[in-house]
Amino acid sequence: MTELMYHSTRNKAERITASQAILKGIAVDGGLYVPEYIPQVDFNWTHLGECSYQEIAYEVLRHYLTDFTEGELRTCIAAAYDKGFDDAHITPLVSLNEQLHVLELFHGSTGVFKDMALSILPHLMTHSAKKNHLKHQMVILTASAGNTGKAVMSGFADVERTQVIVFYPKDYVTPIQAQQLLTQSGDNETIIGVEGTFDDVQAKVKALLANEELQQTLAARGFQFSSANSINIGRIIVQMVYYVFAYAQLVKRGAVQAGEAINIAVPTGNFGNILSGYYAKMMGVPIAKLLCATNLNNVLVDFFHEGLYNRHRPLIATSSPAMDVRVASNLERLVYELVDEQDTETTLLMQTLEAAGAYELSGGIVNKLQDFYVRDASEGATARAIKRTWEQHRYVIEPHTATAFSVYKRYVEQTNDRTPTIVMATATPYKFPRIVMETLSEVQAEWSDFDLLDQLHAFTGLPVPTSVATVRKAPILHRKIVPTTEMKRAILDALI
């Protein structure tokens, strides 16, 4: 197989291998790494329907991580998708009716879809470090809206020659998210609250990753930055696997014929998960429409309808906090595709966004966005989706997943398109028990979020996952809080 190389969205001249792109995380120029092309694969769907998740993972990843040997890939896959998942299918597909299906992405160690990539990324990074003779310790620097941080720390806990620093917006996470973050016990991990929004945290982390002076300071002390956020191309590639797996399962159970198109509905914040779906479509998964669901922080709605990306709007705290984002970092990779892979044009647009807070695409480029249907879901629509899904299907969903159910309903009502659809369920309901129980039943004012775990179990019969239950009485280990201006100092304090 020809080796697939990678380059920055802002500089096509610098070509690096897959392992190097995974190690670097973000390019020196601030751009995001992308493969030079998306491999086209003629999948045998009947065969894949009989394959395990692990086998399908190898069939996908071998096309992208071409400087890894078969043995290395299979070792990483086996180590990642093991008994740490509470379902043998890894991502079980639940059919609510003939038309509507749910892919559960929350059966990993932290109860969110991030586990799908962050269970394997540490193993890929470790192999990448050896492959590239990395002499320095890796510093995994991550911004988290609440879910990513715990998944990163779970995946990288006590990994050799690796330090993990996670920043999160202290006022924009739920009590259970905070408890999962602050009780993390890895000896190589630091979690720090930040006074600001997720956008503030993410922007600062990206700037620090690209800060050459800071990189030199750390290198002199034996450290090297990388990232486990979805800006790392490794995460995007690994997430493509479950799109292939889901389609193969539909074929296996006769819900579609091999080659028949489906739609996918994805709750979207930083645009990483749905970008993986878009790449899977380009690779060969028969996806007709990508239904992109946002919450009231709906900057993507304007972008897809008008070509205008404008982050100048108030950040609204919603019941789906992981989607409370005004700057969707992974959109840069889609923009790069839309401008016909012109790195200079991509650079100009991203520099304009950074300087002015907004940019606008031409009408011709906007016309290329027909693969996507993008709408937002209000808080009321999100709650109604939770209630409706329980009443109609006796199936429990949490607020992020509910935005996708809401947008799916609007899409069908607007288009009358009855194409079989998979909704990506991105978190266990037990991560957000308050909004779920307030929607489905009565809640006593004095009940804490942890009391509501028991109430949700009693009401639905759904088992409380280990990923949530185990942190209930765990001791708080991380208490540091800083303003965004002190994040650089906090990194140095944690490492030096």
Approximately how much helix is present in the residues?
40-55%
**End-to-end CA span:** 43 Å
Shape: globular
Look at the helices and sheets and give the structural class.
alpha/beta
Number of helices: 22
Q: Detail the poorly predicted runs.
A: none
User: Strand sequence of the main sheet, in spatial order?
Assistant: 4-5-15-10-11-14
How would a textbook summarize the main sheet?
6 strands, mixed
Tell me the fraction of residues in β-strands, as a range: 15-25%
Question: Which value, in Å, is the CA radius of gyration?
Answer: 21 Å
Q: How many beta strands in the DSSP annotation?
A: 16
Could you report the average pLDDT, rounded to the nearest whole number? 95
Question: How would you characterize the overall build of this protein?
Answer:
The chain is of the alpha/beta class. Helix content is 43%, strand content 16%. It is built from 22 helices and 16 strands. The protein has helices spanning 18-24, 45-48, 53-61, 70-80, 114-118, 121-131, 148-156, 175-182, 198-209, 212-219, 233-252, 272-283, 299-306, 331-338, 343-356, 363-366, 379-393, 399-415, 433-440, 449-460, 466-469, 487-495, and strands at 6-8, 11-16, 33-35, 93-95, 100-104, 137-143, 162-169, 189-195, 223-226, 262-267, 287-294, 308-310, 358-360, 372-376, 421-425, 481-483. The strands form 4 sheets. It has a 6-stranded mixed beta sheet. The chain has a 5-stranded parallel beta sheet with strand order 9-6-7-8-16, sandwiched between helices. It has a 3-stranded antiparallel beta sheet with strand order 2-1-3. Helix 7 (148-156) links the parallel strand 6 and strand 7 (162-169). The chain starts with 5 loop residues before the first strand and ends with a helix.
